Amino acid sequence: EEFGHLLHNSVRFIKFLCLMILFTHICSCLWYLTIEWAACQVPDGFQGPYVSCGCGPDQKCEDWNWLIKYSGGREAYDLTVQNRSHYLISLYYTVVTLTTLGYGDITPSNDLEFAFSTVLSLLGAIMFSFLISSISSVVSQGNAVENAVAARAAELSDLCTLRGLPKSLRVRARAHLSYTLG
């Protein structure tokens, strides 16, 4: 029974881990897609950290997003060449945000990216809370089983003493209890 309990908890942990990997992948893809969704245009030569997207009709406009800002400017930013690197950067940002580490090296640069980052941070807090409660639950379930076995062993010992059973019978009774309760 103890092995079954351990196996159940291991399967539960592996399922949670797989769900977290899938969730992180989806969030990474969505973070990357904010580049397309925002379609943020700024005046040519803009270098600020944050902008509420907008470019006048008489101005020369360029794209502005978290990847351009992180890449060090528009010259280093090539959406067609570095898809694997872009995914890894997105994955890194998502993991750092979901785990509430938040190094600050990749930051949102427009309204949509800030909104997405806020939701991602809240989901990270919820995920962290769920993880802590799951670990606490597994530990408390393990303690409950151990406490139940100890209580039964104490009851058996009291019964054997009360009835004045011989030592050989007490040993066999404890062995049977250990075998049946795991």
TrEMBL record:
GO molecular function term, any single one: voltage-gated potassium channel activity
Domain Potassium channel: 83-140
InterPro entries xref list: K_chnl_dom, K_chnl_volt-dep_EAG/ELK/ERG, KCNH_animal-type
TM segment ranges: 13-33, 112-132
Keyword Membrane on entry: yes
Keywords, alphabetical: Membrane, Transmembrane, Transmembrane helix
GO cellular component: plasma membrane
Source superkingdom: Eukaryota
GO biological process, one term: regulation of membrane potential
Pfam families: Ion_trans_2
Protein's recorded name: Potassium channel domain-containing protein
Lineage, opening ranks: Eukaryota, Cryptophyceae, Cryptomonadales, Cryptomonadaceae, Cryptomonas
